Amino acid sequence: MSRTKLIMSILLLAVGFAAGIGSARLSGDNASAGTSGESHQLHDHGTSEASGQLDWCAEHRVPESECTLCNPELVEFFKSSGDWCAEHGLPESHCRECNPRLVFAQEPADEPVTAEPVQVSVFFPPNELGCTNDQAVIRFASEATADRIGLKIEPVRRAVHSGTIEAPAEVVFDETRTTVVTTSYSAVVLRWLVEPGQTVSAGQALAELESPEIAQIKAEYLEALSDMNVEDRRVKRTKELRERNLVSAAEFEDAEAELNASMSRTDGATGKLRAAGLSEDDIESVEKGRQVDARWLLRSGQRAAFLERWAKPGEMLQAGTPLALTGDPHALWIEASVQERDMHKFQLGQELEFSADGESLSKATGNVIWVSQLIDPETRTGVVRAKVRSGADNLRAHSYGRIGAVSTSSHAALSVARDAVQWEGCCHVVFVQEAPDRYRPHKVSVERGDSQHYIVAGDLSAGDLVVTTGSFFLKSELLKESLGTGCAGE
Predict the structure, then answer these.
(1) Which of 273, 239, 267, 243 is nearest to 253 (CA)?
(2) Per residue of the chain (490 residues), what is the pLDDT tens digit?
(3) From edge to edge, which strands make up the β-sheet containing 178-181?
């Protein structure tokens, strides 16, 4: 038997034998000056006859018969026996901060206290199961301290909440209303001639490019054009001779065949120049000037907004590399990455709302136009795409934010002011006022509510008084090492 267990056994025997002493202790507690007696009244030890867990203080998570916080007269015994943690003001055998894995034989299994099912938002990190501040209390030296700090409290309110399905999302251009600008040949962008946001007309030069392949194609075009002109004149002469019966029909047909072949070669070279991005005027300039150089102007094929440019000047790009994007800047999609478990909740035509990060005014509504049938094997998410119906003027492509789709079901819930919720490093907490000089952190799960409130679930009840203004100060006090003494000072 360990020394600590032996001491506990002796203590319990002594208390049971000296019944008078035990009675005096209890009566002394109830009759003593406000501190001890009042504190004892506030503790709910949560014992249960049905479960057989009688010797358990649920408030402080130790056996009730050994709880020094409920029974301060036991402190001297633990100190004299050498079982005392001065840093945290508890017996060493009870200190969970020094012994995080401490478990008592009669300790009940933890059960989450949630009156109503609340889906936790993906934008709030989940709470840790165990927390060193689970049993913390912030106690001021006097009631006046809270007044000097400026703490304000509000009651927890009941609310009827329609759950929302949330997911991170991005605003992108409508792919059916945009055109990718590219070239069919490897090239270097020498300089851009327009800036994103400009409106460009059909045929307007977007950039100056350079490619050795273009010089070769221009040469092929000029050669094919020259051959075509020669063959055209030959056909005309042969036709005249044929009419005078000076040449055979076969010779005339051969001349026509050569002309058709040269015309095909010319059309092929012209098509290559068009594929590179040259306009009809550019091709005509090549013909007239007979310039075989490697440079040419990349032109827009339609009147549109110049939305994006991706190619960097001076970088050699492979054939087919997208260089820029033109289209309608107000035609937008919202693409959301939805968790696998929520994919079935989205249907075509369903309405959703998008809110941009950090910009409360950048909101828009849209309707679902596509739900992916595939799940990403790494992220376990699927894509839901919606077409923006209203609010596009407030959005910018490539803005990040979240989508929210209203669930068809609703449930009773609790609502607290947004300022009341604090993240203390491993959990979301609100600080409940137990007395004007005493505040206790309560762990909560959080879901977005309206612009001023959060929907929460946890060990709270409607009417509980929670700190709003000043909750950040209490969080700071909670994180201080001196909180082990249970006092935040003055």
Answers:
(1) 239
(2) 444 444 454 444 444 444 333 333 333 333 333 333 333 333 333 344 434 446 888 777 788 888 888 888 898 998 898 898 887 788 888 887 677 667 787 776 543 333 333 344 445 666 666 666 667 888 887 878 878 888 888 888 887 656 677 889 999 999 999 999 988 889 999 999 999 999 999 989 999 999 989 999 999 999 999 999 999 999 999 988 888 888 898 988 998 999 999 999 999 999 988 888 888 888 888 888 888 889 989 888 889 999 999 999 998 999 989 999 999 998 999 999 998 888 888 889 988 889 887 655 567 889 999 999 999 999 999 999 999 988 777 788 898 988 887 665 556 778 888 888 888 777 888 899 988 888 888 888 887 666 678 888 888 888 889 999 988 888 887 776 444 443 344 3
(3) 178-181, 324-327, 304-309, 199-200
Give whole-number Cα distances, 420 to 229, 355, 437, 456, in Å: 85, 23, 18, 11
Token pair belonging to 279:
């306009």
CA–CA separation, 411 and 457 (whole Å) = 12
Q: What is the pTM of this model?
A: 0.49
Helix (H) or strand (E) holding 175: none
Nearest to 404 by CA among 349, 346, 358, 462: 346
CA distance 28 to 30: 6
Report helix, strand or coil for 378: coil
Residues 59, 41 contacting (CB under 8 angstroms): no
Q: How many residues does the chain have?
A: 490
The pair phi, psi for residue 17, each rounded to 5°, is -70, -45
Give 45-50 contacts, CB < 8 A, sequence gap 24+: 45/70
Block residue for tokens 């002109």: 229
Residues 206 and 190: their CA atoms lie apart, in Å, by: 11
- Is 384 within 8 Å of 335 (Cβ atoms)? yes
Cβ(407)–Cβ(442) below 8 Å = no
The amino acid at 377: P
